[in-house]
Structures are given as structure tokens and as C-alpha cells.
Amino acid sequence: MRKTLLLLSLTLLIAAIASLHLGVRLYGPATVWSAFSGGNDTADIIIRTLRLPRTLNAMATGAALAISGLLMQATTRNPLAEPGLLGVNAGAAFAVAFGLVLFGVVSVGAIGLLAVCGALAATALVFGLSAALGPQTGPTGILLIGVTVAAMLASLTQLALLLDETALETLLFWLSGGFADRPLALLWLGVLALTVALSGCALLGPSIDALRLDDHSAAGIGVDVARTRIAALALAALLSAGAVAMSGPVAFLGLIAPHIARRLSPGRPAFIGMAALAMLTGAIIAVLADILARLIVAPGEAPIGAVLAFVGVPFLIALLRAKRLREVGV
Question: Transmembrane residues, as ranges (predicted)?
């Protein structure tokens, strides 16, 4: 486990350094060093004020979404659970869009608060509908409910923006998801959410480990299953809200990062260890995707959602196929 964590940390460091060098223009190590030594050339300003913030943003967003996805997959025992697929991202985006359209909300703190409220409300709606339908809903049913709620909220968001052209211009780029040109103040909101959630993961870790058993067995060894699940899902929603506030809705990262982390982990580590692996994995994927987004259509820039979908959609299909094969006993 320690070797894996060390290797992932080193990989993240290399990816972050590469992110400072690569883009529409390639800068050498001397230029990057000059930027952090107080240089005031154009290249120094670009590296310091554009590439560094977007790299930090990508790292924080990737880490937050990866842990959010891990929490959802662990507590629902659904390998397909992910903030985007369960409507959490759409809920946060819906709340931010309507806050801007109806109340003219533009401050950083208000956007973050709206994102948190929207994410929590969407989570409550999805799992409330699932509970109302009963135990027969199953993991696939929860996924279908989440996709339906996400589609509904996305449609309402688009409707709100069509009613206010100024809001559409303001939020169009944000709603597409991305790490560039984001205020650093929003980064602090995401980092705060990440810190709170990691503390919560440390406290809930043993109970979440017990949820690997069925609910009856977990309750038999003293775990309050309902309270643990609600607390974990609230943390997942908080992380997703922080990520949406920082970078807009970013899909698939919360799905693929936990699965890759599991394949990198030796044996079956405790949940807190898996959270550390997922956090590093998500940060690496986000930084690499951001670099790729700058390069594949240079001198333009591809939407980060499109880059992640290029990997995430085949990954989702593979997971669904593997689940189907297990069900038929192949």
C-alpha cells in the first residue's frame, strides 16, 4: 500500500510539473523556474496566473470527485454509482443557474453555497425515490432514477438559462466543465469541502468497511447502517458540490477513478486507504485530461467533459457488460 501511494504521489507530481510546461506554447524548465522566482515576462505571468491555478483546480476537483464516487459505490454497493450519473452534479448546476437567474447571485461564497444545497437536494431526491419504490429497486434501479433526475434537472437548467440571456452568457462556459479561468477563491471552497470529507471518511471508515457485508450482518456487529449510509452520502454530495463550484459539472471522473484505484490496491485495504488511493488517482486523471484538452485541438481547447467522456463511456459500457455476464453466470 505504501509503495502504491508513493508511486501515485510521484506520478501526480510529474503530471503537475508537466501541466506547467505544456499548452499552446511549450515552456522550458528555466521559464517555469523564472515564473516562480518573481519573473514578470509574459510567459512568467501565464504560468503563474493561468497554468498554476488550473493545475491546482484540476487536482482538487479530481480528488473530490474520486472520493465522492468511492463513497457512493461503497455505501450503495453499486459499482456504477457516480456523482454525475446519480444527479448530484446536475442538482448543483441547477441550483447555481437558478440562483443567478432569479436572484442575480454572482459572489463566490453564494455560488458555493448554492452548489452544496443543490447537490444535497438532488442526492435526497434520488435516494428518497429509491426508498419509496422499496428494496426491489436494486443498484440498477437507483442508477436509472439518478439518470432520470439528472436529465430532468439539466432540462430545467437549460430552460432557466434560455429565459435570461445574460445568465446564459455568464454560465455557459462554467456549465461545460473545465479547469481554466476559474477564480482561486472557488478553489478554497473545494479544498475546504475536501478537508471536511476526508475527516468524515476517517471517522466513518470502519463502519463503511462493515457495509461490505449485507445490511443485516453489518447491523449485527453494531453498525448503524442507515446513519452511516446517510452520513457517507452527505459527504459525497458535499464533495461533488465543491467540485461543481470549482469546475462546473465534470462527468465520469467519479466513476472511473475509484475502479482504477481498486485495481492498483493490493488485496482489500481499509476504506481510508482506498480513499487515499482514489484521491491521488482522481487528481492524476484530472491533470492528464486537462493537458490533453489543451493539446488535441490546439490552438483551441477541447471541453474537459468531452475528454473524460472519451474514456468514461467505454469504461461504463465495460462495467455494464461485466455486470451482465456475472448475472447470467458467464
Answer: 88-121, 141-163, 184-205, 230-257, 269-296, 302-320
- Predicted confidence (pLDDT) per residue in 234-243, tens digit: 888 888 888 8
Question: In sequence order, what DSSP letters do the residues of 257-281 get, joined into one string?
Answer: HHHHHHHHSSS---HHHHHHHHHHH
Dihedral sign from CA coordinates of 94, 96, 97, 101: positive
Q: Which CATH class is domain 1-328?
A: mainly alpha
Cβ atoms within 10 A of the Cβ of 113, count?
Answer: 18
Q: How far apart are CA 159 and CA 263, in angstroms?
A: 41
Predicted local confidence at residue 162, as pLDDT: 78
For 53, residues 6+ apart whose C-beta sits below 8 A from its C-beta are 182, 184, 187
Work out the burial of residue 26: count CB atoms within 10 Å of its CB; fewer than 13 is exposed, 13-18 middle, 19 or more buried: exposed
Q: Amino acid identity of 31?
A: T
Q: What is the pLDDT of residue 173?
A: 62
Q: Distance (Å, rounded) from C-alpha 171 to C-alpha 174? A: 5
Contact status, residue 176 vs residue 303, Cβ threshold 8 Å:
yes
pTM assigned to the model: 0.86
What is the SS3 assignment for 82-141? CCCCCCHHHHHHHHHHHHHHHHCCCCHHHHHHHHHHHHHHHHHHHHHHHHHHCHHHHHHH
Best-predicted range by mean pLDDT among 105-114, 146-155, 230-239?
A: 146-155
CA distance 67 to 122: 18
Domain segments of the chain as ranges: 1-328
pLDDT at 329 over 50: no
To which residue does cell 426508498 refer?
A: 131
What letter would DSSP give residue 182? -
